[in-house]
């Protein structure tokens, strides 16, 4: 909106003002009644002035203490809760004059007055508020008004324009390297810039002041999308899909809940939406802080810095609630918070690129060293070719010997690596992958040599209760002890013990019939039952037992390795159903009978 200002150069108005609020029982009075109320029903206040829900009457006693007529401006800070603001003054005689308020694009409205020398005039304002609100009133000289308005517009332009510039930088960087995090930050900073614009007065209501339904209309949309973009950035920054699937799923659910809030927000009142928006800010910050702390425990490089950044943002949000209210916003506090948060998020991104650069340089250095080593070996080979035939043969023999040693070492290393790939890191037993390969090989050998093949499926009874009661560290120690007991009962080199998954183990026993497999399973069951699982930190002793299921292949027709495991697994569940801590054998013929 365009506005015209009366400016008196080099002449400051000697104007003082006092503010009063009409008693609540007279709130519904008309302007004619208000003009005639005695001073006793008014109570003097200092600004900022607190307003109640509904209609509020304010009075400003303005005194020109100078010797000349003075121009001055009354400036009103419009908050979202203000439904309407009207300004009245006495006209000629007993008439009442409505003084128009000029609305500016920075949450300010102003009215121009001229006051004679040595005169005190009373001006009345009626303010209709939706819920409790706070209003800022200031009486300024023309020069003070222009300086204040210019400074406010300058700061507002720098704050909003700078945030949009930051978003544009993210977009340019995305165009340069195609990083997904950059396009997410472009969206996030754009939403932040729009949110700051709305809070600083550049909103739909400022464009359409005749439509009070537009007050705060954008806040639910911007607040929800801001939280969604920040959650999305967090998932990409730490690659939660692979690193922490449970946390990633929680953040996805929160994002969908924020989207579901958007249509609901159109049915809620302004004050309700303001409270929900601030709750979204606080709750989303708390959730991200919790995610950050979980990642700190996993020694993620940027987790601690990320947690501190979100914690600072949460502190600013709580300060706004404590110092203002659930319904208001501090312009200065929000501007500082938005900019500080934007710079810190950008700093996190720069640290991520720094670490990526270090990793790339380290890989390049290793590649260069490897290339130099290869080049050095080639140079040595050229030198050998230039020597005499006898020296060449001698050197070739030496190099051949060294190469054989190196190949042997490489073969040993590959064998060790292959063995590690087949071992379970926690228990030292073979893993599921080795189990599948070994079972298939032994099954074929058994069928070829006409020898029996038994497998034992072992499950620790009620092991979930151990994890829930004593923690996963204690559960892991129990698994290690049971793995040691399994190794102790497998005395033949051909017998294989595997960790099938979780608290379940499998034994592959070549050339072992039902009785032999049962004996080994019983020995293991008794060993576990007699073993004291003692926690070193608390001294607590845990009593554990195992249930075992056995099946034996003796060249039955139409039987596969998978069938052998299925029958043993059924035997295991039979042992569980019969009370646990026992060994049960199932014949493979039972499976054939079920299939028929």
Walkthrough of the structure:
The protein is of the alpha+beta class and 596 residues long. The protein has four domains: 15-140, Immunoglobulin-like (Sandwich), CATH 2.60.40.2380; 149-358; 387-421; 432-595, Alpha-Beta Plaits (2-Layer Sandwich). Helix content is 56%, strand content 19%. It has helices spanning 31-36, 142-177, 180-199, 204-207, 219-238, 240-243, 245-265, 270-297, 303-323, 331-386, 389-421, 432-449, 463-470, 472-489, 514-530, 561-577, 588-595; strands spanning 15-22, 42-45, 49-51, 54-64, 70-77, 82-90, 96-99, 102-103, 108-115, 119-129, 133-140, 453-460, 496-501, 504-510, 533-534, 541-542, 546-553, 583-585. A six-stranded antiparallel beta sheet has the order 2-1-4-10-6-7. A hairpin with a 2-residue loop joins strand 13 and strand 14 (504-510). Helix 7 (245-265) packs antiparallel against helix 8 (270-297). The longest helix is centred in the middle third of the chain and has 56 residues, at 331-386. The N and C termini lie far apart (87 Å). It is an enzyme of class 2 (transferase).
Features:
596 residues; alpha+beta; Immunoglobulin-like; 4 domains; 6-stranded antiparallel beta sheet; 5-stranded antiparallel beta sheet; 17 helices; 19% strand
């Amino acid at each position: 909106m365009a506005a015209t200002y009366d400016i008196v150069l080099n002449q400051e108005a000697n104007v003082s003002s006092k503010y009063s609020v009409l008693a609540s029982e007279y709130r519904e009075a008309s302007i004619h009644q208000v003009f005639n109320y005695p001073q006793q029903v008014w109570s003097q206040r200092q600004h900022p002035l607190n307003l109640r829900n509904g209609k509020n009457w304010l009075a400003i006693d303005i005194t020109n203490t100078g010797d000349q007529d003075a121009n001055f401006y009354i400036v009103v800070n419009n908050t979202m809760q203000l439904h309407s603001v009207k300004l009245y003054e006495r006209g000629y005689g007993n008439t009442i004059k409505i003084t128009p308020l000029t609305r500016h694009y920075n949450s300010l409205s102003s009215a121009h007055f001229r006051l004679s020398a040595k005169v005190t005039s009373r001006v009345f304002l009626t303010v209709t508020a939706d819920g409790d609100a706070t209003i800022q009133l200031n009486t300024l000289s023309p020069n003070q008004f222009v300086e204040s308005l210019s400074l406010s517009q300058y700061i507002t332009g720098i704050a909003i324009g700078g945030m949009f510039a930051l978003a544009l930088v993210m977009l340019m960087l995305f165009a340069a390297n195609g990083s997904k995090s950059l396009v997410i930050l472009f969206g996030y900073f754009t939403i932040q810039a729009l949110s700051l614009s709305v809070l600083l007065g550049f909103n739909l209501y400022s464009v359409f002041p005749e439509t009070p339904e537009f007050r705060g209309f954008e806040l639910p949309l911007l607040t929800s999308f801001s939280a969604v973009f920040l959650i999305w950035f967090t998932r990409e920054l730490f690659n939660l899909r692979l690193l922490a699937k449970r946390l990633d799923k929680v953040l996805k659910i929160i994002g969908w809940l924020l989207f579901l809030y958007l249509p609901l927000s159109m049915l809620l009142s302004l004050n309700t939406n303001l409270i929900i928006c601030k709750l979204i800010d606080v709750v989303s910050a708390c959730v991200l802080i919790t995610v950050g702390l979980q990642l700190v425990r996993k020694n993620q490089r940027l987790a601690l810095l990320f947690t501190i950044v979100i914690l600072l943002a949460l502190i600013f949000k709580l300060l706004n609630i404590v110092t203002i209210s659930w319904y208001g916003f501090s312009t200065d506090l929000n501007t500082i918070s938005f900019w500080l948060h934007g710079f810190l998020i950008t700093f996190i991104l720069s640290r991520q690129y720094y670490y990526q650069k270090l990793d790339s340089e380290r890989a390049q250095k290793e590649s260069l060293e490897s290339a130099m080593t290869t080049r050095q070996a080639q140079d040595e080979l050229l030198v050998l070719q230039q020597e005499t035939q006898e020296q060449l043969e001698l050197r070739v023999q030496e190099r051949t010997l060294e190469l054989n040693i190196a190949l042997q070492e490489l073969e040993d290393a590959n064998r060790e690596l292959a063995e590690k790939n087949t071992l379970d890191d926690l228990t030292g037993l073979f893993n599921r992958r080795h189990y599948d390969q070994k079972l298939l090989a032994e099954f074929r050998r058994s069928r070829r040599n006409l020898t029996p093949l038994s497998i034992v499926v072992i499950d620790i009874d009620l092991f979930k209760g151990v994890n829930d009661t004593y923690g996963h560290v204690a559960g892991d120690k129990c698994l290690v002890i049971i793995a040691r007991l399994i190794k102790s009962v497998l005395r033949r080199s051909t017998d294989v013990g595997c960790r099938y998954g979780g608290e379940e183990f499998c034994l592959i026993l070549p050339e072992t019939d039902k009785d032999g497999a049962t004996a080994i399973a019983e020995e293991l069951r008794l060993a576990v039952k007699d073993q004291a699982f003692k926690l070193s930190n608390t001294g607590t002793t845990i009593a554990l037992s195992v249930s075992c299921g056995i099946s034996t292949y003796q060249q039955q027709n139409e039987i596969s390795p998978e069938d052998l495991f299925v029958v043993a697994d059924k035997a295991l569940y039979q042992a569980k159903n019969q009370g646990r801590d026992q060994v049960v054998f199932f014949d493979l013929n039972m499976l054939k009978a079920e299939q028929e």
